[in-house]
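Protein modeling request. Please complete all fields; requests missing the sequence field cannot be processed.
Requester role: graduate student
Desired output: 3D structure, token encoding
Chains: 1
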Amino acid sequence: MIPVRYHQAAEDELQSLAKGTVLGATIEGMGDASESDLLFEVPTPLGFRVRATRAYWEIIICIKHPVMAGRELEVKATLEHPEEIRQSRIDSDVYLFYRAEHDSRWVCAVTKHLNEEGFLITAYPTDAIKEGTTIWPK
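Delivered output (138 residues):
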């Protein structure tokens, strides 16, 4: 079993999602991208695809979680082959995908499934799994 620990920063981020904003911007259209701006689009075990644009990935690695720079492949693997998926207790359209990294560390990819589309909200390394309903155990 993966340990659960409360993380205030992640909780604050999910609160902003529930209000429909990320870094002060609205979340509508975050998944929209021209083919040239699309960084990746991957299927998930939940049956929806998640996409991330190059521009939004830059926000993640420059502002939100710089430690994730150069780790796009790990985020894609986490979305495609997670060990656990939890549904946010704040927003039922938000899912947290977890994949083991090493020594009790995981990569967490947070997504939103909205209007039949999925998009990446953020990604970060963590030593604990957030509270929420487990909806997909491996």
